[in-house]
């Protein structure tokens, strides 16, 4: 918890995630964690997308924060409303619901679907998260779709698209651990300083025309034990 990790790193795309969570309880080896925000770097731009810290959740109130190059993005109200950037050609953000759900697209590069959600009292009771009334731990449920990745792509998620990737995860255990903190830890949400970072703010030699599978990441698994990502 309270750490930043590289999710995807290419020469012209770098995505970090910031994790929030609850301290591990006695007898557990890991914190309970959720992705609170992501920092997306592409070309010379920085895009922030995060869930606000809030005590009591209200579905009708928008708790998503978006910034482009440190400037707030104000989306038009209403489901289906679009916003397009004048300074970052190809960047388009659309509302999927009246609040808390958007798609972010950079033409010919990626589409990210993000939904801000809380930890509900029922989830806390079932999984013993011990969420208190002062913070519902609002976080992001994320879906990634990429259109241009090179065989050298890296990052916690990016490595799974690289040529010859073999998962180190032990299938069948209650909470499989991928590992790699030493490789993917970053000093800041917009720092491309993890050991395997490739970001240089320039175009990549992509695998053109390849239909890369989507990745959905969130805490809504049946087991309820941390972040789960599925292609």
TrEMBL record:
Matches recorded under Pfam families: Root_cap
InterPro entries according to UniProt: Root_cap (IPR009646)
PANTHER family per record: ROOT CAP DOMAIN-CONTAINING PROTEIN (PTHR31656)
Protein name: Late embryogenesis abundant-like protein
């Amino acid at each position: 918890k309270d750490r930043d990790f590289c999710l995807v790193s290419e020469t012209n795309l770098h995505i970090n995630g910031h994790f929030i969570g609850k301290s591990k309880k006695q007898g557990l080896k890991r914190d309970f964690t959720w992705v609170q925000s992501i920092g997306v770097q592409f070309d010379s731009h920085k895009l922030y997308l995060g869930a606000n810290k809030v005590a009591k959740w209200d579905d009708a109130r928008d708790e998503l924060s978006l910034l482009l190059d440190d400037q707030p993005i104000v989306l038009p109200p209403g489901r289906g409303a679009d916003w397009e950037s004048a300074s970052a050609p190809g960047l388009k953000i659309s509302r999927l619901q009246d609040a808390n759900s958007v798609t972010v697209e950079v033409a010919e590069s990626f589409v990210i679907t993000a939904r801000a959600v809380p930890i509900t009292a029922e989830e806390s009771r079932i999984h013993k998260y011990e969420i208190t009334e002062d913070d519902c731990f609002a976080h992001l449920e994320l879906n990634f779709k990429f259109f241009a990745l090179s065989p050298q792509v890296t990052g916690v998620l990016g490595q799974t698209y690289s040529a010859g990737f073999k998962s180190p995860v032990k299938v069948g255990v209650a909470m499989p651990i991928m590992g790699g903190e030493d490789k993917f830890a970053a000093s800041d949400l917009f720092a491309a300083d993890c050991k395997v970072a490739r970001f240089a703010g320039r175009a990549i030699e992509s695998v053109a025309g390849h239909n890369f599978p989507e990745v959905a990441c969130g805490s809504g698994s049946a087991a309820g034990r941390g972040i789960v990502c599925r292609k």
